[in-house]
Amino acid sequence: MALCLSAGALFVTLHTQSFTLGWMHSVEKIRWEEDWKIENSTLLLTSARIKGTGAGMEPPLDSIFRDGAWHYTPTIKPLKSVILAHSPYTKEYELCIDFTCKPISSYLPNLEESTTITLEACER
To answer: Which of 17, 40, 111, 122 could form a disulfide with 4 if both were Cys (CB 3.0 to 4.6 A apart)?
Structure first.
């Protein structure tokens, strides 16, 4: 399995079994990060971090503060896909693979200003 990104006619396959999705909260300007792995043709959210708190950003009660962020383990079922909004009004999502983070648009050149991006597990 691999990670596939798509937006309209744009499509790319990334040969990885795990990745981190990072973004900046549009109002509070605080970074969030989620660690995902590909398991049984689905995306499994394994852990998450919030580098601060603010409106609508309260970390779960079982969160632990370490290394400058609130760490927690989300409790959602594995997903077939994750859909992200790509907008000129917010900072772009980052995809981190093997500790190297890049804006999602670097994987999908010519990405439209306002569109959705789908992440899903796919065959290599």
So the answer is: 122
Backbone angles phi, psi at 58, to 5 degrees: -70, 130
Terminal CA-CA length for the chain? 6
The pair of structure tokens assigned to 5 is: 């990104």
What percentage of the chain exceeds 90 in pLDDT? Answer: 79
Compute the average pLDDT of residues 39-57.
91
Residue 57: the pLDDT is 77
Burial of 57: CB neighbours in 10 Å, binned 0-12, 13-18, 19+: middle
Three-class SS state of 55: coil
CA-CA distance, 65 to 69, in Å (whole number)? 6
Give the global pTM.
0.92
